[in-house]
Amino acid sequence: MVIEDHTVLKNKANVYLNELIYIKAEDHYLLLFTSKKKEFVRGKISEIIKELPPNFVQTHRSYIVNKNLITNISFQSVVLNGKIEIPLSRNFKKNI
């Protein structure tokens, strides 16, 4: 659930959207990478993408990135601030 500048996760943790860099899905869990920490929560990528503002886009079946932090886009990947390389699939290229 998004409340103004943060989202409340299922484990009751607050994640501030201005600090959220990207989200990675692994099985039934989501790893949320922020500028300060990592959060690990049970959930689906299809559910959390609906709760996030439009500057968060899905680039791969397992990744959601903050569009504001993209520094470079190549054929198969997206590079975020800090040289973080995230895969980019053909199906989600139109989102960028």
TrEMBL record:
Gene3D superfamilies: LytTr DNA-binding domain (2.40.50.1020). Pfam families: LytTR. InterPro entries: LytR-like, LytTR_DNA-bd_dom. SMART domains: LytTR (SM00850). Residues 17-96 form the HTH LytTR-type domain. This is HTH LytTR-type domain-containing protein. It comes from Chryseobacterium gambrini.
